[in-house]
Amino acid sequence: MKKTGWIVSPAPFILTRPPVLKMTLIIACTLIPQLCMLAFARDYAALLTVASTLSGSVLAEAAYTLPTKRRAVFDASALLAGVLAGLLLPSGMNPAISLIVSFVGILIGRNLFGGTGAFWMNPVAITVAIAYIGNSALFPAQVVTGEGIKTVGDAFGAFKLENFAQIPNDQAVTGAANMGFLRLFGIKLPEGYVTLFWNAPSAIPAFRYNAITLAASIVLIATNVIDWIVPLAYLATYGLSVYCFSLMPITGAPASGDVLFAFLTGGTLFIAFYLLPEYSTNPRTRVGKVISGILAGILAFCVAGPGGSPVGGVFTVIVVNAINPIIEYLENRFIASAGDFA
Amino acid sequence: MMRFVRFSRSFESIAYEAPELSFVGNAFLPSKAFVPLQQNDGKPSMPVVTPGERVREGQLIARGGQPESVHVHAPVPGVVKEFATIPLPNGKMGKAAVIELSGSFDILGRKCEHFPWKSVPESEILRVLEEKGVINTFDAPKALVPDLRKAKKIGKAALAIRLFDADPTCQLEAALMDKKRDMVLEGAAILAAACDAMEVFLIHNEKKWSGISEKSLEELFQKRTCRIRRASARYPSGSEGLIRSLVVAERNKAEINSNCVYVDTVTALSAYDAIVTNQPVVCRTIVVTGTALGRPEILTVRIGTPIGDVIEECGGFKSPPGRIVVNGLLSGTAVYDLDTPVTKYTKSLHIMDTDACPDYAVTPCVHCGRCLQVCPAKIDPQRVVKGIDKAKHTPQLIESLKKCQYCGCCAIVCPSRIPLHHRIREACNRLTKGNAP
Questions:
Q1: Measured distance CA(B71)–CA(B91) in Å, rounded
Q2: Taking the alpha carbons of A216, A219, A220, A221 in that order, is the dihedral positive or negative?
Q3: ipTM
Q4: Alpha-carbon span B57 to B74, nearest angstrom
Q5: Which of A149, A148, A130 lies closest to A88 in space, CA to CA?
Q6: Is A282 in the B-facing interface, judged by CB distances under 8 Å?
Q7: In sequence order, what E strands does B67-184 have?
Q8: Model-level pTM?
Q9: Residue of chain A whose Cα is closest to the Cα of B374
Q10: CA A87, A89, A94 angle in degrees (round to 5)?
């Protein structure tokens, strides 16, 4: 008999989604343009922060796996957590501090709960929260205030009061968009949004490149790497809340909030597509995911308001992650009784 | 051409390569046929020939002594060289008679008989089906006649025939329905007569029934009520559990017992060959396809033909093969030896190239919930497997084990590559044997 080197394995031989390692690598690849933009903008301090959080994350993984003699599962998720944490910490943070913060955050948030698939709260969010609680002065202040909105009448106007520098081509691109496809819908985009979209002014690198984040989200959803339900429910609820209620307590005008501003500041998109869809921290059924997303949207509105919050999104993630086990407990009970909740 | 099949409980689709297939007739005869003595899930048949003995085409070479084993016939004339242990397409090892081709043919090249079976009594049909070694390939391959006898004995029986592939990547049964529809339906009528069925369920998954007219069906099935039912075109509408529930629900509605024999098109065609043309099961029509294959074709292959010979006839490998999969990409088995023979339960061969082979490194569960979302049996595969691992034998766990249809939807969508349905099946088998799951 001719023996071959082929692999014998049980069915199925068609799989609809990439393996975990490949999924992590795809997410990491979508972050490369953001890192390139940082390099292009010569923000070496931000890159140094990313490098130190990455080291902290790898050390946390080693500190957990080596003494316990657990077999390290190289799914690159610790590396990804390090990069994400680095992008969510303010540029120019002391590298030693960011290394320690990332080490502690990843060790507590990820490894002590059992690693991939088992952690309760997003370790990246925990890292950022530790850094913020440790020294909130490192983070930029809330860019939009109630006073500012009262003076100007809208959130973006209030944001512009804080030395807002448009990118050189903002005016030209806005003009072209208004004369082009936006005209078909009867929409006129004010100047400044193109800047928010392309390179929003923020000390936190993850909040800057919204266009790249949006493009990355298409890749992540199209390749089945992330679940679209949670980000969609989150953005829809947060957007609706901002539109309906954000200006009501200040100007008294209902249904006049600036949704675009809320999405393009405070890292709303980055958090929606990189932190919230983390499988470990989410319920497993579609209904559970929708509830979790809606809850995140409501909480984001309560915490971050009309937008521009430096850590509002991260704390939203932590609170929702804390609540998600209750949703999961309820969905498990429904599955056991009704059997059709997924 | 890429084809997409939606999951029955998800928006996701399974994509697979499905080239245009053509029937090319009989494959080349093997110079050496490896005829396994075990052609179904029962016990192996007892050989009635000895090494060195000359056999004729279609001669009985192994007798199914037990009720669950079937007779095996020589697919080619020649000399029995030896009884060797060889790998089988189901992944197990088994004994096979090695027949070296020589001598003249008794079936091949002769004019086919057309036996008027309608006047033959049921017991005679059952005897011939048994004698010709017909097996039921509806689900796991098993002897057909004991089931027919049992159904006849209980009374008010029904016969349900699935006219499409349970595993859509197989593409064989759809092709047989397209090209040999009349023979398949006549085979179904024979089987209905054999178990004295009062009802016949023809289950298809096309948008509209494209088979023969109701009048022709009445003529074919005579006194039996013929019901044409549509199953969903989504995966896994052809699984045993779903077809069974479809039939049982309808029979319960009419307050009739759930006594039903379930067959597929391949079984019906075998019954036709056995009764109408008086041929034992010595060949199988199989689909040979895959990204690494030179020329995808549908061939009628002698049982015992090494799959290497079949591949060679289809143009050989056009790129380095990664896996050779028997009986479909969703529920089949990979074989590793080109001498693995074609058996009575072989339906298709997929020659996958290395690029098309998925990565199988199992990693811890990422808690994505996909398995839960696609499961057609509405169980929670990940929790069931966790329960099996922790030996938590709760009533819910045992109920879930019983509900599983082993369609593999959970494993298809699992990014951690956990063989969930295999674990559940293994536990269920242990439970059936009286052990703890």
A1: 21
A2: positive
A3: 0.88
A4: 5
A5: A130
A6: yes
A7: 72-73, 78-87, 93-101, 135-136, 142-143, 158-162
A8: 0.89
A9: A342
A10: 115
Q: How many angstroms separate the CA of residue A312 from the nearest CA in chain B? A: 26
Q: Whose structure tokens read 């088992």?
A: A118
Sign of the torsion angle spanned by Cα atoms A247, A251, A256, A261: negative
Query: Is B415 in Cβ contact with A20 (below 8 Å)?
Result: yes
Distance between CA A224 and CA A19 in Å, rounded?
11
Name residue, tokens 């019906």.
B268
Structure tokens at A309: 């919050």
Whether A116 has its CB under 8 Å from any CB of chain B: the answer is yes
Q: Which residues pair with B85 in a beta bridge?
A: B95
Please give chain B's pLDDT, 437 residues, in tens: 889 999 998 888 999 988 888 898 899 999 999 999 998 887 889 999 999 999 999 999 999 878 788 999 999 999 999 999 999 998 888 999 999 999 888 877 777 778 888 888 999 999 999 999 999 999 889 999 999 999 999 989 999 999 999 999 999 999 999 999 999 999 999 999 999 999 999 999 988 887 788 888 888 998 899 999 999 989 998 888 889 888 988 888 877 778 899 999 999 999 999 999 999 999 999 999 999 999 999 999 999 999 999 999 999 999 988 899 999 999 999 998 999 999 999 999 999 988 888 777 888 899 999 999 999 988 999 999 999 998 888 888 888 898 898 899 999 999 999 999 999 988 988 888 776 66
- The one-character DSSP state at B293 is B
CB < 8 Å to B364, chain A? 73, 115-118
Q: Which residue of A has its CA nearest to B383?
A: A332
The tokens of A135 are what? 């020294």
Residue in this structure with the two tokens 């999951």, named with its chain if needed: B7
CB contact under 8 A, B336 and A8: yes
**Which residues of B are less than 8 Å from A282 in CB distance?**
367, 369
